[in-house]
Amino acid sequence: MRKRYTVGSIAAVGLVFVLACITVNIYFPEATVKQAAEEIVDEIRKKDAEKGGQEAVKKLASLHESAPFSLVPAAYAQEATSVSTPAIRALKEAMKNRFPALKPYFEAGNIGETNKGMVEVRDETGLNLQAKAALRNLVKDENGDRAKLYAEVAKSLNIEASQIERIQKIFAESWIKSAAAGWWIQQEDNTWVKKS
Questions:
Q1: pTM to 2 decimals?
Q2: Helix 71-81 to helix 49-66 angle, to the nearest 10 degrees?
Q3: Half-sphere exposure for 76 (CA within 13 Å, toward CB)
Q4: Those residues with Cβ within 8 angstroms of residue 86's Cβ, 6 or more apart along the chain or in another chain
Q5: Under a CB-based contact definition with an 8 Å cutoff, are residues 160 and 29 in contact?
Q6: Which of 4, 12, 151, 175 is deepest in the core (most CB within 10 A)?
Q7: How far is the CA of 149 from the CAs of 27, 133, 153, 156, 174, in angstroms?
C-alpha cells in the first residue's frame, strides 16, 4: 500500500512539473510581429504607407461591425493598434528622415541589409575620409534606432526581452524584402548577394 502511495505521489509531482513547464512556455505573436514589421518598414521606406493604413482601419471597422459583442474583435483591435507608441512613432520618424541619406549608399553597394535586421558597411572604396565618417555615423545611428525599435515593439506587445532576437529576424525579412534590386542583402549563411 505504501509503495503504491509513493508511486502515485511521484506520478502526481511529475504531472504537475510537466504542466508547469507547459504553462511557462512563452507565447510569441509571430503573425502580429510580421504584420508590424511590414507596416513599419513600408512606412519608413514610403511604400504604400497610406494604402496600408487605410486597409488596417477598414479591417478593424469590419471586425467591430461583424461581431459587436464579441471579445475577440476588441482584443484583435487592441493588439493591432498596440504596436504604435510615442517611442515607436519617434523612431520611425527619425528613420524616415535618415533613409534618403542612406539610400545612395545602398544603391552604390557601400552598405547592405544584414540577416539580423541591421545595416552593415560593406565597401568604402571610392569614399574620401569625410564620406567614410559620414557613412559610419549614418549606419551607427540607423542601427541604434533599429535596436531601440525592436525593443519597443517587444515592449508594446508584452514580449519578453529574451525574444528580441526573434523580432530582429522577422524585421530582417521585411527589410530585405523591401530592398531594391541591386542592393546587397545578407543570406542566412551570412554570404552577401545583390538582390535581383
A1: 0.71
A2: 160
A3: 16
A4: none
A5: no
A6: 175
A7: 20, 24, 6, 10, 14
